[in-house]
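Pipeline run #58 for the internal structure catalog. This entry was flagged by the ingest filter as a single-chain record with no existing model, so it goes straight to prediction. Upstream metadata was stripped on purpose; only the residue string is passed forward. Reviewer on rotation: M.T. Logging verbosity set to normal.
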Amino acid sequence: SGGQVGDRGRLLGEGVRASVRDTRKQGGQVIGHIVRVDEGELQVGARVEAQVDAARRRATALNHSATHLLHAALHHILGPHARQAGSLVAPDRLRFDFTHPEALTYPQIEAIEQYVNDKILDNYELETTQKFLKEALDGGATALFGEKYGEIVRNIQMGDPSPTLRQAQGAGSGEGIFSNELCGGTHVDETNDIGIFMITSEGSAAAGIRRIEAITGREAFHQLQERRRLLNQVAQKMGTSPEKVVERAEALNEAINDLQKQIAALRQNMAALQFTNVLDETAKISEVNVLTAHVREADSDTLRQLADQFRTRYPKMGVIVLGTVQNEKPMMIAAVTEDLIGRGIKAGDLVKFVAQQVGGGGGGKPTLAQAGGRDASKLDEALASVPDWVKENLK
């Protein structure tokens, strides 16, 4: 019921032993037992003793009661529109789908966790009663959309403090009923039995439906221990204490950014030094100054700066195509002086021609264009084809 997985356990009888792998409702009050016979043979009419896996049922009960608290928290934090749209209640985790139009913010997730854990620590009793369906609904009980209910239903309510808390707080100090649902699943007696509630993920389940996954009890405690262990390991690697990990990470990021800027500046300087010699290799093709070069350790900004240097030296009748390799992929930039555009030489057409030879494409303005490709091994061959293209397309 309510997305809860079936019980497991075993069946013991004279000369027979079987493992119950699952239990499922077959309609009405009939519960089907899916079993694996480990010893002997199960006979129709045989008398057996059924032993439930109590630890598994207990863990499942923690998670089921926690889903009711989560539902109440969503109503309280997000609003009454946040209604259950599906769930899974297993012994090791719970999953809860609910109606909400957008992703939850981190402060909202924290507030939901806080609400649930406050209710756990305040130790409210769970009141379980059998009622007529109409009576329960008239009393404000929440029924799941699409769920079929009989004439008599089971009503789970939370809100009355446990005897211990009631004695400490004084009579009438509780906030009243905050969770009131129809449910046929297994539950704890008091919310304090749940121990800890911890959200492990929040995401989209479908359009307009969000999904929260969470853990409770020992699972949550073990997860907290694991996260503390990882935090201590990270702090140790970073040479600081767990309390100062964020401060240390920010300092390291700042140092990395500074180093990346220095590396970029060094690459630009290296490319500029390399390019100074390359400029002298400019060829004359039908009176056009044509230069191609494979520039090592350069990015797109560096290539543009080098192209500007070329156009400074050759403000007229100039064509340049520069290529480099970034992350094992070729990248090219072509630049053309203004006076050649009317004579059929355009940077966009030229860089597209080169890019096609390395399995890519691109384009841009008539005077400056950029392209990328997939096959870096063909970059030099593609650059070498530029002079012939200029000769063929010059009008």
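catalog note: The mean pLDDT is 90.
catalog note: The chain has three domains: 9-52, 56-237, 262-393.
status: ready for reviewer M.T.
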